[in-house]
Amino acid sequence: MDVIQPVAWTSDGTGVRILDQRALPMREIYRELRSVDEVCDAITTLAVRGAPAIGIAGAMGLTLAITGAERSVSEAVDAVGAAARHIAARRPTAVNLSWALDRMVRAARLHDGSPRDLAIRLHAEATRILEEDRAMCRRIGELGAALLADGARVLTHCNAGALATGGMGTALAVVYAAAEQGKRIEVFAGETRPLLQGSRLTAWELSRAGIPVTVIVDSAAAALMRAGAIDLCIVGADRIAANGDVANKIGTYALAISAHYHGVPFYVAAPVSTFDGRTASGSGIVIEERSTDEIRCGFGAPTAPLDVSFRNPAFDVTPAALISAIVSDRAIHRPPFVDLPFDRHS
């Protein structure tokens, strides 16, 4: 398949090039980010989004923290650390961001050469993070494709495809790999309110890849399951706790409850960088609250009275007890999830 690149180096290698996902599906706009503040803004406003993709963007963005004004290596390392803290605060729920930034800061602290060589080292480390994510996505797809039978009707939520990663996606990597094997797969994409990442992004990239896709309102999922129209659900993740609880886009928990009630398998797909062994359970995951404007008037005209209260949690936590299996780039992990790959976070 023709893999989308939501985040990459600019042609001269000195900036970060992103596909601005706010403009999709109507326009395909690429932007070049040349400062840490521009990277922070892109992450905050969801111009670049998806846990693995923002981790990659954050890692690349740290290379922009070294301006040449630093007089010593220690000052350059301090600048990298400060920038990492600034970027990490943009999206607290997705562990891939802090994981990638921590890895970059460690590389900086281990550096014993010149400031110029430090910039080269950080650029190489960020490139490795991108390339590793691409390989992890491929492996997730290859492993997870075994869960999809020929003719499978798959329900997904939000966007866990190429737009959210450095490669072919996580949840959608499973779909793409199954299609590559010749299986006929149909996807139902929940629109994913309030910003419609399912209808705007998932449907866009699936149709671009030639995968049959049907968009549904989020509240139709349970009815479709009851009607026997869904064979399985598969979603991505922003953080997976030590006990197997999964934080993902708001609405995932409700989808998992419906799947459990109707006897529909509910799968999660995520790379090793999403597993957080330092967080014991989902109750310890910080849930990002986003601007209420996303509900009040997310796409222009007001859709609710302006003088009422709003809550806009961006994520929820699905208990491990509702999850049939978790597909990582290492294996398919099944309950009671004693073999989850936490070594890179421990």
Widest sheet, order of strands: 6-5-4-7-10-12-13
CATH-defined fold name of the largest domain: Rossmann fold
Largest sheet: 7 strands, mixed
CATH homologous superfamily placement of the largest domain? Translation initiation factor eif-2b, domain 2
Q: What portion of residues belong to β-strands?
A: 5-15%
| CATH C-level category of the largest domain | Alpha Beta
* Low-pLDDT segments: none
Structural class, by secondary structure, is alpha/beta
Residues in helices, as a percent range: 25-40%
Count of DSSP strands:
13
On the 0 to 100 scale, the average pLDDT is: 94
Using only C-alpha atoms, the radius of gyration works out to 20 Å
Distance between the termini: 35 Å
Total of helices:
10
SSE string:
EEEHHHHHEHEHEHEEEHEHEEE
Count of the separate structural domains: 2
CATH architecture term of the largest domain: 3-Layer(aba) Sandwich
Would you give an account of this structure?
The chain contains 10 helices and 13 strands. The protein is α/β, with parallel strands linked by helices and 346 residues long. It has 2 domains: 7-138, Four Helix Bundle (Hemerythrin (Met), subunit A), CATH 1.20.120.420; 146-333, Rossmann fold (3-Layer(aba) Sandwich). Strands 6-5-4-7-10-12-13 form a 7-stranded mixed beta sheet, with helices on both faces. A 3-stranded antiparallel beta sheet has the order 1-2-3, with helices on one face. Strand 1 and strand 2 (16-19) form a beta hairpin.
